[in-house]
Amino acid sequence: SSELTQDPAVSVALGQTVRITCQGDSLRRYYASWYQQKPGQAPVLVIYYKNNRPSEIPDRFSGSNSGNTASLTITGAQAEDEADYYCNSRDSSAKYWVFGGGTKLTVL
Amino acid sequence: QITLKESGPTLVKPTQTLTLTCTFSGFSLSTSGVGVGWIRQPPKKALEWLALVYWDDDKRYSPSLKSRLTITKDTSKNQVVLTMTNVDPVDTGTYFCARYYYESSGLDALDIWGQGTMVTVSS
User: A-side interface with B, Cβ within 8 Å?
Assistant: First the structure.
């Protein structure tokens, strides 16, 4: 399968925890990467592999995987976390890559 | 410091060929585990993965666009070029290039992105 499915929108109260999910058959075989994109900016890698963060990403961001679902969790969401979040992984055949449709996170 | 920058026309007419160049610094495309990919984003829509060229010149394309895309690398110039033939207004959007990096720690992702370049397809 070449599809990764995300909820279009999620909201979280300031300081609370939110989970953003990504589903797809290829996730049974490959890990997802997660990208944060703020308006007018390029995407930024926040999580890759099992639960790895680039050094500049705050530790309130974490990742997990189960079956065909990858999840991005923000523990103690901040106002600056309001953004679009995209998952990305290889297709099941490993011949190309795909992005999920993105999740718009609103911090209330 | 690793940087990537996209360049190319801002306006292209329908049916023409679009050529975009990604010029990068701070890494080499001859290093094992490295690649450069192209991703686009129509206005107010999601990211779409287009193509990627690896250090060993292996090339991968989105199956939906494969017939229209060609990706090439010039290691000596630190550039990757993407050509898209027969463009249509639906190809309008921001085009990003990004470094792909694989290492044994598990990094297997587009880790550094360019700022993107906006392309409009219109007559």
Answer: 2, 31, 33, 35, 37, 42-45, 48-50, 52, 54, 86, 88, 95-102
pLDDT tens string A28-42? 999 999 999 999 999
- Cβ atoms of residues B12 and B6 within 8 Å: no
Q: What is the DSSP letter of A52?
A: B
B107 to chain A, minimum CA–CA distance in Å? 6
* Mean confidence (pLDDT) of chain A: 95
* CA nearest neighbour of B36 among B68, B10, B75, B1: B75
Distance from CA of A64 to the nearest CA of B (A): 14
Task: Please report the number of interchain residue pairs, chain A to chain B, with beta-carbon separation below 8 angstroms.
Answer: 67
Rounded average pLDDT over B58-72:
97
CA dist., res. B23 & res. B45, Å (int): 25
Close Cβ partners of B61 (under 8 Å, ≥ 6 residues apart)? A96, B50, B51, B69, B71
